[in-house]
Specification:
5 helices; mainly alpha; elongated
Length: 154
């Protein structure tokens, strides 16, 4: 495994937390824009404005924040068996559970990207209620991630 240079671990951890916060903010905001977009007339001014907002949110914030989260989180993962963690961290159940929930966030990200394309092409067929429920999924996944990372129940 990789041992981060002295002092680098805390910087990588801080950058990971910052990027996760930005990613989560976008994962929570994009479905809210979809809710508003459901009411907008296809081709109308509001619809076109929402298309721009959704595209910029996904491309300028959400995707770069996800990549940064994976980059800094990956650096933390490869340094698990050295330094502050010691041997055997990879055998801990909490880590595997957390990574499953992180994979769930990545799947949500991909689904939202697909939904954004559908709105961009005026092909959305889902009601507002669908996006209201979809808005809750990242929150539930985030709660699981935090509990597994902080409490480490198993």
């Amino acid at each position: 495994m990789l041992e981060l240079p002295d002092g680098a671990y805390l910087w990588v951890k801080a950058l990971h937390i910052i990027s996760v916060i930005a990613w989560m903010a976008a994962l929570l905001y994009l479905p809210r824009l979809f809710v508003y977009h459901c009411d907008a007339e296809a081709g109308g001014e509001l619809s076109e404005t929402l298309k721009i907002m959704e595209r910029r949110l996904l491309r300028a914030i959400m995707t770069p924040a996800m990549i940064a989260s994976f980059l800094f989180g990956g650096l933390l993962l490869v340094s698990l068996d050295v330094g502050v963690w010691g041997e055997g961290a990879w055998e801990e159940g909490w880590l595997h559970a957390k990574l499953v929930f992180v994979a769930g966030l990545a799947v949500m990200h991909m689904m939202m990207a697909r939904w954004r394309r559908e709105f961009a092409e005026d092909r959305n067929m889902r009601p507002q209620k669908f996006y209201r429920f979809a808005n809750e999924a990242p929150t539930l996944l985030m709660i699981g991630i935090v509990i597994f990372a902080v409490v480490r129940p198993f």
